[in-house]
Amino acid sequence: MIKPQTVITLQPSQPFSPMTSKTVSLDLMEFVESKILPRYSAFDKAHNIEHVTKVVRSSLKLAAQLGTDINMSYVIAAYHDLGMSGPRATHHISGGRILQNDMRLKKWFSPAQIKIMKEAVEDHRASASHEPRSIYGRIIAEADRDISTESVFRRTVQYGLEHFPDKDKNEHWERFLEHMNQKYSCHGYIRLWIPGSENEKNLSKIRVIIEDRTLLRTYFDRYFDEETCQE
Question: Contact, 99 vs 114, CB < 8 A?
């Protein structure tokens, strides 16, 4: 999935520090791709392997731009939604616990780094009322918000179909509309923590669409019909 151009492999006794590694360590990548990412195949379409792969790529890009440790950002992204194996409302807390309790990570990271990564996973959720506690939390929070009309609208439709299969189209529309207003509107709870990001620009575009309910319904109809194979 993520192919390194250069690999820096550190011994377990060597702590990572910002700018230590420019690309993901190969043995760490092999571990994550074989043991961690496949677990996403059990989740719904909004949190599946395609989603986590996008979050990983976005996290690596932001880490490179901001000069933080690539390996830490990679692991945080890979683990960030593992808590979806339990209740969705607390998946960020469960995900942080899963990361912290995975003793295999001690091969690559110090206890202090594992604590930072745990907190970053806990802080990634869009509805979090507090600012992430570290730059790593801000990176994963930003990377997890794949904010584009395609991603936001389609994933919302997918989640509704997956979790509320008995609803008819109009009921799905009402749920879709409620979610857009609660999360993405000008009064919504979503928060972005990296000023000037592409997500910030895209969120402004989505808010314009939300204000025009007729236009928003057009987007909903398109993605709903595609996901249910309706003509």
Answer: yes
Residue type, 36: I
Asked whether the beta carbons of 121 and 54 are under 8 A apart, the reply is no
For 150, the 3-state DSSP assignment is helix
Task: Give the sign of the dihedral formed by CA 110, CA 111, CA 112, CA 117.
Answer: positive
Q: How many CA atoms lie within 13 A of 132 on its CB side?
A: 25
**Exposure class string for 115-154: b at 16+ Cβ within 10 A, else e:** ebbbbbbbbbbeebeeebebbbbbbbbbbbbbbeeebbbb
Rounded distance, CA 86 to CA 95, Å? 9
Distance between CA atoms of 18 and 64, rounded to whole angstroms?
A: 10
CA-angle at 51, arms to 119 and 135, nearest 5°: 30
Residues 106-118: tens digit of each pLDDT: 999 999 999 999 9
Q: At residue 47, what is the residue type?
A: H
The mean predicted confidence, pLDDT, of the chain is: 87
Residue-wise pLDDT for 68-109, tens only, equals 999 999 999 999 999 998 888 889 999 999 999 999 999 999
| Nearest Cα residue to 56 out of 34, 32, 73 | 73
Q: Token pair for residue 132?
A: 């992430």
pTM over 0.85: no
**Higher per-residue pLDDT: 215 or 198:** 215
- The DSSP letter of residue 38 is G
